[in-house]
Amino acid sequence: MPLIYFGAADMSGSRNDLALEFVGVLIFVGLAVFGYYKSYLALGFGIMAHGVGWDSWHHHSHPYVASWHPMACLLADLALGFLVITQAGAYQAPIHSLKADRS
Q: Is residue 30 part of a domain?
């Protein structure tokens, strides 16, 4: 989802906005990959943090983002983050731990 902000900044033509959104993509994608492989709870809280921090920050502060998008993304991030957190107990082991142990 952070790619939507990146695309909007690209269409705005501002290099500063594009650089800022690129940094946001690197940070949030990096955190998502870390959470996916290391901790589903961290992933869920990271998704929620994206909504509370990044989306709230974009609300009415960046003209290149549609006015409705930050609030819609915030709600989607909170719902998805809550879902990941509540389901984390069923999937405690990160993906690489599911491989058969041959020792």
A: yes
Angle between helices 2-12 and 15-38 (to 10 degrees): 170
Q: What is the pTM of this model?
A: 0.71
Using alpha carbons, select from 42, 48, 45 the residue that is nearest to residue 94. Answer: 42
pLDDT of residue 32: 87
pLDDT tens profile 24-74: 888 888 888 988 888 888 899 989 988 888 887 776 777 777 778 788 888
Q: State how far the Cα of 96 lies from the Cα of 103, in Å rounded to an integer.
A: 15
E-assigned strands of the chain?
none
| Structural domain total, the chain | 1
Range of the domain at 61: 2-90
Q: How confident is the model at residue 81 (pLDDT cuts 50, 70, 90)?
A: very high
Q: How far apart are CA 29 and CA 26, in angstroms?
A: 5
